[in-house]
Amino acid sequence: MIKRLRGTYDVLPQDAIKWQYVEDVFSVILERYGYREIRTPVIEETSLFTRSIGETTDIVTKEMYTFLDQKGRSITLRPEGTASVVRAFLEGSISPDALTKLYYWGDMFRYDRPQKGRYREFCQVGVEAIGSAIPALDAEVISLAMCLLETLGLKDLKLNLNSVGCVDCRRVYYEKLKDYFNSSTVVTMGKLCPTCQKRLEKNPMRIFDCKEENCQRTIEKAPTIAESLCSNCTLAFENLKKYLSLLDIPFVLNTRLVRGLDYYTRTAFEITYEKMGSPQQNALAAGGRYDNLIQELGGPPTPAIGFAMGMERILLAMEIAKVNIPTGKKVEIYFVSLGEVAFQEAFKIIDRLRRKGFYVYATTSGRSLKSQLREADRLCVGYTLILGGDELSRRVVMLRDMENSTQREIPLKDLEDELAKL
RNA sequence: GUGAGCGUAGCUCAGCCCGGUUAGAGCACUUGGCUGUGGCCCAAGCGGUCGGGGGUUCAAAUCCCCUCGCUCACCCCA
């Protein structure tokens, strides 16, 4: 038997209800904050991702689904959403001067070893606010992210906040970090792990992500980015904090927070849910500013900020938090028919009822009354219609209320009117 | 890429350590008890290449080797 590919999953009907619920809640709120949906292709030219995410990042070096098409072009299944949205923004010439607020929703692909809360094909919903650098926008975007999760019923969310500065701050900071990690105080504490020695050359901030005990110890005393921020970045960060306070959104400053993508500048944030099983997979949403990306992709200098949330993790968090998913109540009917003649008549009636807007279940094979009622019971329908030879000859149908086990006859000609009253 | 755990009925698992009749249970499903009335109860039935291959043995779900798959964790990320 053919089985699903590793790291993929099927959303079965009982779970699809949960997905639909989140989709409904989210789309309303996103529109309320002024965002409009954008849909982009799942496949893109490979260079879009290598240029935006960064040549040396884990995503680009080992996690992308890349293949050559029939004409030998390098194609990649999107590993994240921002690059495609920016590409579409530039290609679609969306009003370049005004602030553009977009949201997207879709599957992303990363070739990773799957584990709890992490898949090779996974679903992200994200937003991008393009065209403004004012810190109030950062605060609004963060508020939106919090609002989305809180509206689902998730509590005790933790907002981790940092500023990773602009290119100027980072140049200064990288030098400081290199000096520190090469200094005698660090060397006496023991060597960095091999991965971190490479990181020291390419992107020293990434050392903060290391879980090696020895590296962790050296990190404690390392200089923070805050001390290296330029005056503009410092001011922007202070303003962001001020606006978050205005909105009563608590946050935790985390100077070690580094995002795994190269394009981030200034604001970086992550919303974690501590009750999540695995401590390393507890980020429900993450994002930040990317003020240089649009220019790097060939557009005009345009500041922007966005975030992405992982749907699988949100659903997982909802399970853990035991969130109640409201179910829309609708009148459902199971149509029981007995014998071939009655089945043919029922077959016509059922089709007519469905076209009129009723929710009607029915058996497809001639089974016993008992087994059909049992199925109706399993489906939890409120009512059952029973049509046998006796009813058919008298042009009536039995309407059974499954809740209190009462039933009455209804002339076939009045059926639709009677059902409408239920 | 690295490490650990697990693969037995549709599902959850027992049996394996200590090899030995036809490989079990619960749930689910079908039928009947109740000839045209669901849920509860009772009974019967259906359902298995014991993940796959090889080896040891008179004999393998059970012991050994290889392999595939899944899960969890590391790296990293949503």
Automatic annotation (TrEMBL):
GO terms for molecular function: ATP binding; histidine-tRNA ligase activity. Gene3D superfamilies: Anticodon-binding domain (3.40.50.800), Bira Bifunctional Protein, Domain 2 (3.30.930.10). InterPro entries: aa-tRNA-synth_II, aa-tRNA-synth_II/BPL/LPL, Anticodon-bd, Anticodon-bd_dom_sf, His-tRNA-ligase, HisRS-like_core, HisRS/HisZ. GO terms for biological process: histidyl-tRNA aminoacylation. Keywords: Aminoacyl-tRNA synthetase, ATP-binding, Cytoplasm, Ligase, Nucleotide-binding, Protein biosynthesis. It catalyses: tRNA(His) + L-histidine + ATP = L-histidyl-tRNA(His) + AMP + diphosphate + H(+). Residues 1-326 form the Aminoacyl-transfer RNA synthetases class-II family profile domain. It is found in: Cytoplasm. Its main location: cytoplasm. GO terms for cellular component: cytoplasm. Its EC number is 6.1.1.21. L-histidine binds at residues 80-82, 110, 124, 128, 259, 263-264. Belongs to the class-II aminoacyl-tRNA synthetase family. This is Histidine--tRNA ligase. It comes from Candidatus Desantisbacteria bacterium CG1_02_38_46.
